[in-house]
Amino acid sequence: MWSVYNIVCLFLIVCSYVNCASILKSPEIENENIAIDSSYLLNDEEFEIPDDEVADHVRYSPERVNLIKCKQYHQISKVVNGRDAKPREFPHMALLGYEDSDQILWECGGSLISEKFVLTAAHCLRNKNGNTIKYVRLGDLDIKSNTDNASPQQFTVKKTFIHPSYKSPNRYHDIALIQLDKKVKFTKYVIPACVGLSTDLNGTNPTVAGWGLTRRGGDPANILQTAPMAYVSANVCRKTYPKSFALTRGIDDDLMICAGGGTNKTDTCQGDSGGPLQIINQSYDFGAFSEIVGVTSFGRSCGFVPGAYTRVLPHMPWIREIVWSYSFKSAAARTNS
Ligand SMILES: *[C@@H]1O[C@H](CO)[C@@H](O)[C@H](O)[C@H]1NC(C)=O
Ligand SMILES: *[C@@H]1O[C@H](CO)[C@@H](O)[C@H](O)[C@H]1NC(C)=O
Ligand SMILES: *[C@@H]1O[C@H](CO)[C@@H](O)[C@H](O)[C@H]1NC(C)=O
């Protein structure tokens, strides 16, 4: 974590915070054209966005920070992948672990969306035996192998944030955030994805990713799986999921996305609960990046019918407040002390 940037910065913060920020990146960050910035490279393997760059964002709205952060993460992924980033490599995929008797059960998925936060489903904060989530693993590819081309980092959970409108067993607002016990080391295997930038999903091609864990505690698929999905309209989806005890208003199109099913019966089984429904956002001049648009929430009979995903966009005010004002506050606290 300690880098030459921290040292330079610490020195400069003492004399002037403004100088410090301008050395690392010109304040012209408002200009959308950010060149490839390999200054995030700590060594051949690790990347870091210096803390003071977050401090620089104190003057921006959480919405603006969300965009700036997306660009920074994209910078890293571009340094890693070269010009044609391959966001489908899922460096944001997280595995969630529960301590059950003497073992850790990896039973849900999630997505890294910042230096310290993982997005998942609210129902994933506990497993079916009632154990609370305790571990998060990032950067893994093959759970069982140590020789796969991956570099896992394991964290414990510092704090969880469940959406205030989630009322189990109801499925609405099935979304939660996990704060990790320490900052993530960005490597080519671990880079956050963006959230909340697409207001219109029409024309995008979503994919799911996950280890296809069985909630029955059986063996997971060892290697990260991914599958293309197709959106299914709310009206069609309602045929599969009518109003019920856990779905009192039925499928709510504003809060949920339905996808998959149909003829590709393998599709919907592959995403774990809590894992991402993602698109490649092509809209920037700096190239494609992964954006999480849904969180795997519930499904039935794996594959033949669509699955339901919690829409990320309507939950963005809540996400931004926790994820980005956390960065603000900690950075402001450091600057003030
Ligand atoms: C991609 O991100 C930009 C952010 O500026 C947004 O305007 C756009 O709608 C996004 N989505 C797609 C599918 O391009
Ligand atoms: C999606 O886009 C297509 C082509 O641009 C258009 O014909 C269609 O009406 C759109 N669908 C929705 C639901 O907006
Ligand atoms: C089925 O898979 C194909 C390619 O594998 C994909 O293009 C298509 O969108 C999928 N259909 C559904 C309904 O998910």
From TrEMBL:
It holds the Pfam family Trypsin. One of its GO terms (biological process) is proteolysis. SUPFAM superfamilies: Trypsin-like serine proteases (SSF50494). It comes from the Eukaryota. Coiled coil: none annotated. PROSITE patterns: TRYPSIN_DOM (PS50240), TRYPSIN_HIS (PS00134), TRYPSIN_SER (PS00135). Residues 79-324 form the Peptidase S1 domain. Residues 1-20 form the signal peptide. CDD domains: Tryp_SPc (cd00190). SMART domains: Tryp_SPc (SM00020). The keyword Amino-acid biosynthesis does not apply. Transmembrane segments: none annotated. Keywords: Disulfide bond, Glycoprotein, Hydrolase, Protease, Serine protease, Signal. GO terms for molecular function: serine-type endopeptidase activity. Belongs to the peptidase S1 family. CLIP subfamily. This is Trypsin.
